[in-house]
Amino acid sequence: MIWRRKRIGVALGGGGARGLAHIGVLRAFEEESIPVDVIAGTSIGALVGGAFASGLSSVEMGELVDSFLESPTFQDSALKSIKEVQESRRLSLTQKIQAFFKNRIILAQAMFRPGILHAEDFQAMIDYFLPDIGIEELKIPFVAVATDLISGYPVAISHGSLRKAVMASCAVPGAVPPVEDNGKLLSDGGIVNLVPTSVVRQMGAEFVVGVTVGSEIETDDEMKTAMDVYVRATNIMGFHLEQGDLKEADAVIRPDVGNLHWTDFLLARDLIREGEKASRERMVDVKKALPFFKRWSSRFSGSRTDENLS
């Protein structure tokens, strides 16, 4: 009798800075020697997934995050400015005045161009983490999920420039300009496919792990402005979209990242720790795809299934 392990696929969901928890999830996989046969990602999940598929370890990714946050690329970026504006309620009077004018500048920019952030600035972040290679050259089969704003359908990018594919998947609507590609106008994959479990299944995975870093559905935030209501409605839509995606997963890992703003990158180390913690808590479920674990669990449960036999 030959025992065969299932092909394991990991689907990393979108969620801005909260997605740094994906690094911790993958760290637990490495330390437990859990193989990842295929990987797909949406938005920040595509960035982390692409880096991992290129051969970077979770430790190396963590070090890159630390160095990026200290670099001029981040310190001088609009990403940091947006975060400062978002936190303006907790600032001093002088800082609030500065945030007020920054906010007006950001809103003005949004009226006259397709994204608040310059594409070049955001591309610099992508380039910081990813090698300039084709997706076909990666060590692990990988797909970045984007949304075509023209057709309204998801696009699974499995060929071509890794950096361009991840840039398209990370193009947060309104914040980052969409990416033009062969008649398509590509934006954040999270618009239609927040956790790409179905894509991982189509890639040949027999056991799908879905990792979600979406916001909580309940909130204590006050909704005083039209923007507050719009953001809240968008979060609700994303939550219910995510639930449909997770039905495709055999195991779900949900790091406790709360409702952090998508620009909260300075909490990177805490987010990575939360990802590792959540991954270890669900490791028993993930190991069900492995033949050794199957034999061990069958021996002690007194039963055995044939789903891992060939």
Count the beta strands: 8
Strand content: 5-15%
Largest beta-sheet details: 8 strands, mixed
**Average pLDDT for all residues:** 80
Radius of gyration: 20 Å
Helix and strand run: EHEHHHHHHEEHEEHEHEHHH
Structural class by helix and strand composition? alpha/beta
**Contiguous uncertain segments of 5+ residues:** 82-115, 296-310
Report the total helices.
13
Helical content (DSSP H or I, runs of 4+) = 40-55%
Write up this protein.
This protein has 13 helices and eight strands. It has helices at residues 21-31, 44-53, 58-70, 72-75, 78-86, 93-112, 119-129, 162-169, 197-202, 226-246, 268-281, 283-286, 291-301, and strands at 8-12, 38-42, 142-148, 154-157, 179-181, 184-188, 207-211, 251-253. Strands 1, 2, 3, 4, 5, 6, 7 and 8 form an eight-stranded mixed sheet that branches. A hairpin with a 5-residue loop joins strand 3 and strand 4 (154-157). Helix 1 (21-31) crosses helix 11 (268-281) and helix 2 (44-53) runs antiparallel to helix 8. The longest helix has 21 residues, at 226-246.
Please provide a brief summary of the model.
The protein is of the alpha/beta class and about 300 residues long.
Question: How are the SSEs placed, and which strands pair?
Answer:
Elements: E1 8-12, H1 21-31, E2 38-42, H2 44-53, H3 58-70, H4 72-75, H5 78-86, H6 93-112, H7 119-129, E3 142-148, E4 154-157, H8 162-169, E5 179-181, E6 184-188, H9 197-202, E7 207-211, H10 226-246, E8 251-253, H11 268-281, H12 283-286, H13 291-301
Parallel strand pairs: 1-2, 1-7, 2-3, 7-8
Antiparallel strand pairs: 3-4, 3-6, 5-6
Helix pairs in contact: 1-3, 1-11, 2-8, 5-6
